[in-house]
Protein backbone atom coordinates (compact mmCIF):
# COMPACT_ATOMS: atom_id res chain seq x y z
CA UNK A 1 0.00 0.00 0.00
CA UNK A 2 2.80 2.38 0.88
CA UNK A 3 4.41 1.73 -2.54
CA UNK A 4 1.19 2.77 -4.37
CA UNK A 5 1.14 6.00 -2.36
CA UNK A 6 4.65 6.93 -3.54
CA UNK A 7 3.86 6.04 -7.16
CA UNK A 8 0.71 8.21 -7.14
CA UNK A 9 2.62 11.01 -5.42
CA UNK A 10 5.41 10.85 -8.03
CA UNK A 11 2.93 10.92 -10.94
CA UNK A 12 0.96 13.84 -9.50
CA UNK A 13 4.17 15.70 -8.68
CA UNK A 14 5.43 15.14 -12.21
CA UNK A 15 2.25 16.53 -13.71
CA UNK A 16 2.29 19.69 -11.61
CA UNK A 17 6.00 20.32 -12.10
CA UNK A 18 5.62 20.83 -15.87
CA UNK A 19 5.88 24.45 -17.04
CA UNK A 20 2.59 26.15 -17.82
CA UNK A 21 2.33 28.91 -20.39
CA UNK A 22 -0.51 31.43 -20.43
CA UNK A 23 -0.43 31.71 -24.25
CA UNK A 24 0.88 29.50 -27.01
CA UNK A 25 3.96 30.34 -29.05
CA UNK A 26 1.80 30.88 -32.14
CA UNK A 27 -0.44 33.39 -30.34
CA UNK A 28 2.63 35.09 -28.83
CA UNK A 29 4.05 35.48 -32.37
CA UNK A 30 0.75 36.97 -33.58
CA UNK A 31 0.78 39.48 -30.71
CA UNK A 32 4.39 40.43 -31.44
CA UNK A 33 3.71 40.87 -35.15
CA UNK A 34 0.64 43.02 -34.52
CA UNK A 35 2.32 45.15 -31.85
CA UNK A 36 -0.56 44.41 -29.46
CA UNK A 37 -0.39 43.33 -25.85
CA UNK A 38 -2.80 40.79 -24.38
CA UNK A 39 -4.54 43.61 -22.51
CA UNK A 40 -4.92 45.73 -25.69
CA UNK A 41 -6.36 42.77 -27.55
CA UNK A 42 -8.71 41.84 -24.68
CA UNK A 43 -10.14 45.34 -24.26
CA UNK A 44 -10.63 45.76 -28.02
CA UNK A 45 -8.11 48.56 -28.64
CA UNK A 46 -5.89 46.41 -30.83
CA UNK A 47 -6.61 43.52 -33.17
CA UNK A 48 -4.16 40.62 -33.49
CA UNK A 49 -5.02 40.07 -37.14
CA UNK A 50 -3.76 43.50 -38.20
CA UNK A 51 -0.17 44.39 -38.91
CA UNK A 52 1.91 46.56 -36.62
CA UNK A 53 1.90 49.82 -38.56
CA UNK A 54 -1.32 51.77 -39.04
CA UNK A 55 -0.06 55.34 -39.19
CA UNK A 56 -2.52 58.11 -39.83
CA UNK A 57 -2.16 59.99 -43.10
CA UNK A 58 -2.09 63.44 -41.50
CA UNK A 59 1.13 62.94 -39.52
CA UNK A 60 4.46 61.39 -40.43
CA UNK A 61 6.72 59.53 -38.04
CA UNK A 62 9.22 62.36 -38.36
CA UNK A 63 6.65 64.95 -37.23
CA UNK A 64 5.73 62.83 -34.23
CA UNK A 65 9.38 62.19 -33.32
CA UNK A 66 10.17 65.92 -33.50
CA UNK A 67 7.18 66.76 -31.29
CA UNK A 68 8.17 64.20 -28.66
CA UNK A 69 11.89 65.11 -28.87
CA UNK A 70 11.13 68.79 -28.26
CA UNK A 71 9.44 67.84 -24.99
CA UNK A 72 11.65 65.07 -23.60
CA UNK A 73 15.20 65.41 -24.97
CA UNK A 74 17.69 66.00 -22.16
CA UNK A 75 15.20 65.13 -19.44
CA UNK A 76 15.28 62.17 -17.09
CA UNK A 77 13.12 59.14 -17.81
CA UNK A 78 10.54 59.98 -15.11
CA UNK A 79 9.82 63.35 -16.71
CA UNK A 80 9.58 61.75 -20.14
CA UNK A 81 7.18 59.10 -18.84
CA UNK A 82 4.94 61.83 -17.41
CA UNK A 83 4.94 63.64 -20.77
CA UNK A 84 4.12 60.46 -22.73
CA UNK A 85 1.23 59.57 -20.42
CA UNK A 86 -0.14 63.12 -20.54
CA UNK A 87 0.05 63.01 -24.35
CA UNK A 88 -2.02 59.79 -24.45
CA UNK A 89 0.77 57.28 -25.15
CA UNK A 90 0.59 53.82 -23.52
CA UNK A 91 3.69 52.01 -22.28
CA UNK A 92 4.24 48.56 -23.78
CA UNK A 93 7.11 47.33 -21.61
CA UNK A 94 8.03 47.21 -17.94
CA UNK A 95 10.95 49.59 -18.35
CA UNK A 96 8.55 52.20 -19.77
CA UNK A 97 10.86 52.96 -22.68
CA UNK A 98 8.53 51.77 -25.48
CA UNK A 99 5.17 53.42 -26.15
CA UNK A 100 2.18 53.00 -28.52
CA UNK A 101 -0.44 55.41 -29.79
CA UNK A 102 -2.60 55.42 -32.94
CA UNK A 103 -0.57 52.65 -34.59
CA UNK A 104 2.79 54.31 -33.91
CA UNK A 105 5.51 52.90 -31.68
CA UNK A 106 7.91 55.30 -29.94
CA UNK A 107 11.07 54.10 -28.22
CA UNK A 108 13.31 56.17 -25.96
CA UNK A 109 17.01 56.61 -26.81
CA UNK A 110 18.65 56.92 -23.39
CA UNK A 111 22.11 57.60 -22.03
CA UNK A 112 23.66 55.43 -19.33
CA UNK A 113 22.88 58.17 -16.77
CA UNK A 114 19.13 57.84 -17.44
CA UNK A 115 18.71 61.00 -19.50
CA UNK A 116 16.92 60.89 -22.82
CA UNK A 117 18.78 61.72 -26.01
CA UNK A 118 15.63 61.48 -28.09
CA UNK A 119 13.02 59.12 -29.42
CA UNK A 120 12.64 56.77 -32.38
CA UNK A 121 9.17 56.51 -33.91
CA UNK A 122 7.94 53.76 -36.23
How would you explain this protein's 3D organization?
- The protein contains five helices and four strands.
- With 122 residues, the chain is α+β, with helices and mostly antiparallel strands.
- It has two domains: 1-52, no CATH class; 53-122, no CATH class.
- Strands 1-2-3-4 form a four-stranded antiparallel β-sheet.
- A hairpin with a 5-residue loop joins strand 3 and strand 4 (116-121).
- The protein is elongated.
- The N and C termini lie far apart (65 Å).
- The model is unreliable at 53-58 (pLDDT under 50).
Briefly characterize the structure:
By secondary structure, this protein is of the alpha+beta class. The chain is 43% helix and 16% strand. The chain has 5 helices and 4 strands; from the N terminus they run αααααββββ.
Task: Give the tags.
122 residues, 2 domains, alpha+beta, 4-stranded antiparallel sheet, PepSY domain-containing protein, 5 helices
Q: How many DSSP-defined strands? A: 4
Strand arrangement, largest sheet?
1-2-3-4
SSE topology string = HHHHHEEEE
Shape: elongated
Helix share bin: 40-55%
Query: Which spans have pLDDT < 50 for at least 5 consecutive residues?
Result: 53-58
The secondary structure category is: alpha+beta
State the major sheet.
4 strands, antiparallel
Number of domains: 2
Q: Total number of helical segments?
A: 5
Radius of gyration: 22 Å
Gap between N and C termini, in Å? Answer: 65 Å
Strand content: 15-25%
Mean pLDDT: 77
Organism: Lelliottia aquatilis
Protein name: PepSY domain-containing protein
Amino acid sequence: MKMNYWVVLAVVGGIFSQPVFAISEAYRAQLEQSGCTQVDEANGTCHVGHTRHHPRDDESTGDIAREIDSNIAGKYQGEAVDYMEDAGWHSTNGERTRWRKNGYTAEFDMTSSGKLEGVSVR
